[in-house]
Amino acid sequence: MLFTLSLVAAVVLMLDPTSQNWGLGSSGAVKYLPVILCAGSVAVNLVANPLSIMVLFKPANAAMLGLALFMAVGSFAAQESTGKDLMFTYMGRAMNIIPFFAAALCMQQGYREALEARLGRIIYWGGLVMILLILLSELKVVFGFRGAFQNQTPLAVGAALAAMWLPKGRLFKAAWALLAVGVFLAMGKYTSLLWAIVVFAVFVLVNVAPWLFRGGTPSSGVKSVRTVLAVAAVALVTLLGAALFQSKREVASTDARWPVFQQRISEFMESPIYGSHFESSPLVSIGNLVIPTHNDYLEVLSGGGLVALGLLLVAVTAAMSRLLKMYRNGIVNYGYRTAVAGILIASLINMMSNPMLFLTATSYMVWASLGIMANFSEPARQRP
Fold it and tell me: Where are the bilayer-spanning segments (predicted)?
């Protein structure tokens, strides 16, 4: 229950277009509410079943535990040596990994399929609201500015991909694809263009390819016409959106990112194995700007070197292998499970060009989805 509430809290925070906690201030109680709830979930699980602590020593979970401790120890060392306040160290990043462990423990419970469905529904409806808010923002109907939710788009991607797998009709899925593709293209960013292509491709693969290449046909001529019209509409929006994307593409932010990337690479080259031991600042000063790295992999690499990046990749590899196995074996509950998988994949890609680990709500998407997928286990099959 606490883990579910933590997801609700994270979604609510992500729906704030200004990332200012809906004007409730930047106090720890508000900013870290999803993490606090996850910490409570971990405590409840360990008290109810002390032996469940062994789950944390599985390879992927142990790797993430090592990464969190690496960040925490480096933060305390930085405070001791420089007197730096912990809020300006990697301690916040370390705390934000707690949702991974909450997810890992919850996935070991007997109700994991019900948990996945419940989490998937929250992601689905939260993502739908976000897509509508992005649309209204791009039309300048709300918020008074464009470009909202750049870092939070994995939530919308997860919802859109889940819609493609839900047991609904082709018209429902085509409408979802039209909405998602149009909104992502209207955002005019490289990553949003990628999400538009992904959603369109999944729509075609799930709803059109089986009909075209496996000999199946819709049950009636009316449905056949509707399917063709739906596919044509999605293709048209994609083509028009591509033209819109080219006309409004903005690259101004790239000018600030390259110096940040270069500084992080220089820090890594000074100590490739352990980086700065996470004793440096997670923020970078470029002229009068103090900004996050905008590439979380580079941030981990500069802060903890190849050791830290290797620990992260252990968990990512475990999650990806389980994800591939899940779809290869045709495990049921595709729709809502795909919501979690979609968030994970979109987050891992978004981390290449956006500071996903900078905000608690967006880092929650990364760590919670990674914890779920890295600890996914296939239900035992009955012997004949």
Answer: 60-78, 90-110, 122-143, 171-187, 193-213, 225-245, 300-319
